[in-house]
User: Which sequence fits this backbone?
């Protein structure tokens, strides 16, 4: 379903006056409204191609209908999100769930929707029907060299697809690990994995990056061979300058201080990017900012501080991606809420008075330091995010337009109520 610009403009008309009042208020309250607006306009979040359907869990899947049946329809859905919020201008593909059979056609179709290709994702956590070897006991860690070779070749194939599409990075998430003590020699598993990643690293074009994504547990429940930020940093450091760590917010043990991890990885110049989502217990892949919005703010606070300390370009120097799966929400509404949460939280972090915070920290004035952070977090910046959308030709209220245009009903009419998208 294509959303015509005039539909967005018409919807905006009805709430323009109310928006203008709110925007004038916040713009008068802060001294850097214009620079924040430009940063919000430049900030694009990549949408995962594997999160446009209803994934479900092992206990059940409750499809909502109208799900994309192929990559073309996935690009159309992400194009619709981007038409609404002008902040979803990239796709992160997962292979083989979304193989671009005709890369030139797919690239052109994406360009028509104003979309670029962000990090490519390989998949050695499932066995493919035509596979020669199984990944039951792991892929790159596997004691069997032929199985490691199969995983290496798959990742190199994924890089080739990415080059055709104009992507500039590969995310490697390895489900490898063990479920029981004694099952695995941790040292050999690490060395096999490093040796395998080295072969993939050697196949990277000069201007590409490799993101090594860590995860504490699942699908292995005793050890994971890239199990935390320290292990991911070890791999990325041993691999070379094109290798970085990738922080998926749901991949930490309970109560991990993710903002401190982010600060240190940035300091080391080894933070490659994010998989944004939220969680209360495990890798729940819930809507960004829906469970722990203050943690998300503290993470963005460290991102702004750390990126400015290194003179990094906020919009282009890190990989901003969502990684989610949907069970009870409309996938597109869930993604609209996630992008909104990211933009609002980024704007709040840009409000933090860094000079005053630095002074408070140097004076061990703990109370003032908290006041400075919470003042920014308690500032309603929604009108700033809306103004950035308006200036980019987007909707003041994307969800309202999505509903008033009955997008899901139209998708069900077009595609049927039983279609199932590839992915999670
Ligand atoms: C693993 C993960 C990884 C993807 C997958 C879809 O939990 O976060 O990033 O490959 O989800
Ligand atoms: Mn992830």
Assistant:
């Amino acid at each position: 379903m294509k959303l015509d610009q005039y539909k967005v403009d018409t919807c905006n008309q009805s709430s323009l006056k109310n928006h203008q009042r709110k925007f004038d208020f916040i713009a008068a309250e802060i001294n850097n409204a214009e620079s924040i607006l430009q940063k919000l306009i430049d900030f694009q979040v990549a949408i995962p191609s594997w999160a446009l359907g209803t994934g479900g869990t092992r206990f059940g899947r409750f499809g909502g209908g109208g799900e994309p049946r192929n990559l073309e329809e996935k690009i159309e859905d992400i194009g619709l999100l981007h038409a609404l919020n002008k902040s979803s201008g990239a796709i992160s593909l997962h292979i083989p769930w979304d193989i671009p059979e005709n890369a030139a056609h797919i690239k052109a179709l994406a360009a028509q929707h104003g979309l670029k290709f962000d990090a490519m994702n390989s998949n050695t956590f499932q066995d493919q029907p035509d596979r020669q070897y199984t990944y039951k006991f792991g892929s790159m860690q596997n004691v069997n060299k032929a199985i490691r070779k199969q995983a290496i070749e798959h990742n190199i194939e994924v890089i080739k697809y990415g080059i055709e599409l104009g992507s500039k990075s590969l995310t490697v998430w390895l489900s490898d690990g063990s479920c029981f003590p004694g099952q695995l020699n941790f040292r050999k598993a690490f060395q096999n994995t490093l040796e395998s990643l080295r072969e993939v690293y050697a196949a990277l074009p000069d201007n590409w990056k490799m993101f090594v994504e860590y995860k504490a547990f699942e699908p292995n429940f005793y050890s994971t061979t890239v199990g935390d930020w320290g292990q991911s940093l070890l791999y990325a450091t041993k691999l070379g300058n094109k290798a970085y760590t990738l922080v998926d917010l749901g991949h930490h043990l309970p109560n991990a201080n993710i903002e401190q991890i982010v600060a240190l990885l940035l300091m080391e110049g080894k933070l490659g990017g994010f998989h944004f989502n939220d969680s209360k217990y495990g890798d729940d892949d819930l809507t960004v900012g829906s469970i722990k919005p203050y943690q998300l703010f503290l993470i963005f606070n460290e991102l702004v501080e750390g990126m400015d300390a290194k003179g990094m370009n906020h919009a282009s120097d890190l990989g901003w991606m969502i990684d989610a799966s949907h069970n009870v929400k409309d996938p597109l509404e869930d993604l609209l809420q996630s992008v909104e949460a990211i933009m609002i939280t980024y704007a709040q972090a840009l409000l933090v008075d860094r000079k005053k915070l630095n002074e408070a920290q140097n004076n061990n004035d703990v109370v003032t330091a908290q006041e400075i952070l919470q003042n920014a977090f308690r500032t309603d910046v929604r009108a700033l995010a809306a103004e950035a959308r308006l200036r980019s030709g987007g909707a003041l209220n994307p969800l309202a337009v999505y509903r008033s245009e009955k997008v899901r009903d139209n998708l069900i009419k077009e595609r049927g109520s039983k279609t199932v998208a590839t992915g999670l």
